[in-house]
């Protein structure tokens, strides 16, 4: 009998998929649920899977793995897609794909299935992740195969197949969401009208700027080898640290974003995001880099941001070029250490001070009031050489 590993949330879509797979593939289905810090993770996810016919269910706490081995490496590269998006959904997919592959091998499964739709990015990310790690496995994408087209169709399918439908399933929020410890996203539904303003009630994880405290909040972040290790001098695990920054950002109105992005499938898509801790971390990391990395290294890394971010967005975390770029940015991060003091206030992340034993900043060298170890006459030769092409061009 065929075995299928299904990425399972316990919601309406994946519960229907679970039953549909058994009927259409005559298969044993094992469900897999990753706890990445989503607040809406169901307590009864294993019971839901069992009731729908799963042979057994696997639920794993991957929060520290997620932050340490995916979020932090991504932030070492200062990854930001199209100048704004902090890639909260994108960076979760390679970890889930990796665990789906590992479990498939452990269970002797031939197939992996997911609930991503045929218009979205996630189908690409899951499937490229699987193929990058285990090209021999086959993937089943029900949304590209079946004739179910709406939530009403899914509810009807449940009723016809004696699957429990929770009250209100026909009237879900007028947009879809995806959450993990780094962010929560909102898209589709009422947000597809790009002239509309998102309702204030939509935002789950951050206070509005109006509701944030007037005084703000001062705190510090300590870095070592390019990664944050402590907040306010308290050493924390990766997941604990990001949770701490999320809490600070949330109560100070930091991290809301409303953008129109370019999907991997070629279409434009509006997405609203809350990334409170990530927004703080990106600003803090750039600040500590400014004193620990020389100018040419910063420029070199900045030139890679668009490429690196695009690889993550397009589901190519396991591609050789991502590993090559990661090796470079990790090398740049070796001396990125020290402490940044920050004021979070009314949606703003304000840098108050920087300190590092690896600092390249020399006050006497930079000062206009001291000569330091710099001969100003040396600038004349530099300017002459740099101006040659400007003087000799055909105007």
Summarize the structure in words:
Helix 4 (93-107) crosses helix 5 (122-133), helix 7 (238-251) packs across helix 8 (276-292) and helix 9 runs antiparallel to helix 10 (320-332). Helix 5 links the parallel strand 4 (111-113) and strand 5 (138-140). It is built from 12 helices and 14 strands. By secondary structure, it is an alpha/beta fold. The termini are far apart. Helix content is 39%, strand content 20%. It has helices at 12-25, 45-51, 63-76, 93-107, 122-133, 151-160, 238-251, 276-292, 295-313, 320-332, 363-366, 378-392; strands spanning 2-7, 27-35, 56-61, 111-113, 138-140, 176-179, 184-187, 217-224, 227-231, 234-235, 256-262, 268-274, 338-345, 348-355. The chain has a 5-stranded parallel β-sheet with strand order 3-2-1-4-5, with helices on both faces. The chain has a 5-stranded antiparallel β-sheet with strand order 10-9-8-13-14, covered by helices on one side. It has a 4-stranded antiparallel β-sheet with strand order 6-7-12-11, with no helix packed on it. The mean pLDDT is 93. The protein folds into 2 domains: 2-63 and 88-174, Rossmann fold; 178-355, Argininosuccinate synthetase, chain A, domain 2.
Walk me through the topology.
Blueprint: E1 2-7, H1 12-25, E2 27-35, H2 45-51, E3 56-61, H3 63-76, H4 93-107, E4 111-113, H5 122-133, E5 138-140, H6 151-160, E6 176-179, E7 184-187, E8 217-224, E9 227-231, E10 234-235, H7 238-251, E11 256-262, E12 268-274, H8 276-292, H9 295-313, H10 320-332, E13 338-345, E14 348-355, H11 363-366, H12 378-392
Parallel strand pairs: 1-2, 1-4, 2-3, 4-5
Antiparallel strand pairs: 6-7, 7-12, 8-9, 8-13, 9-10, 11-12, 13-14
Helix pairs in contact: 3-7, 4-5, 7-8, 9-10
């Amino acid at each position: 009998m065929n075995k299928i590993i299904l990425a399972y949330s316990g919601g309406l879509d994946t519960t229907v998929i679970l039953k549909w797979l058994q009927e259409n593939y005559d298969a044993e289905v094992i469900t897999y649920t990753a706890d990445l810090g989503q607040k809406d993770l169901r307590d009864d996810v294993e019971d839901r899977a069992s009731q729908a016919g799963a042979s057994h269910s696997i639920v794993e706490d991957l929060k520290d793995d997620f932050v340490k081995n995916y979020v932090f490496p991504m932030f070492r590269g200062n990854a930001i897609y199209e100048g704004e998006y902090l890639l909260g959904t994108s960076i979760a997919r390679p970890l889930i794909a990796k665990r789906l592959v590992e479990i498939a091998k452990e269970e002797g499964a031939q197939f992996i299935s997911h609930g991503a739709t045929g218009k979205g990015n996630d189908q690409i990310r899951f499937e490229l992740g699987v193929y990058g790690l285990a090209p021999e496995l086959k993937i089943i994408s029900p949304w590209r195969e079946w004739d179910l087209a709406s939530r009403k169709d899914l509810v009807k399918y449940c009723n016809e197949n004696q699957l429990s439908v929770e009250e209100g399933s026909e009237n879900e929020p007028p947009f879809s969401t995806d959450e993990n410890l780094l962010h929560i996203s909102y898209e589709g539904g009422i947000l597809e009208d790009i002239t509309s303003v998102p309702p204030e009630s939509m935002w789950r994880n951050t206070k509005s700027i109006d509701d944030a405290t007037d005084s703000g909040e001062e705190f510090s972040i300590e870095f070592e080898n390019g990664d944050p290790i402590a907040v306010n001098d308290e050493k924390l695990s990766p997941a604990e640290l990001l949770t701490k920054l999320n809490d600070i950002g949330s109560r100070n109105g930091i991290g809301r974003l409303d953008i129109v992005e370019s999907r991997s499938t070629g279409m434009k898509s509006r997405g609203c995001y809350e990334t409170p801790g990530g927004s703080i971390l990106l600003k803090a990391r750039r600040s500590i880099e400014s004193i620990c990395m020389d100018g040419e290294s910063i420029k070199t890394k900045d030139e890679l941001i668009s490429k690196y971010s695009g690889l993550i967005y397009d589901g190519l975390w396991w591609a050789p070029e991502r590993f090559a770029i990661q090796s470079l940015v990790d090398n740049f991060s070796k001396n990125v250490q020290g402490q940044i003091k920050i004021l979070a206030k009314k949606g703003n992340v304000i840098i108050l001070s920087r300190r590092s034993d690896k600092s390249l900043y020399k006050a006497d060298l930079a000062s206009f009031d001291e000569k330091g170890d710099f001969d100003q006459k040396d600038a004349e030769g530099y300017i002459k050489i740099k101006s040659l092409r400007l003087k000799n061009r055909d105007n």
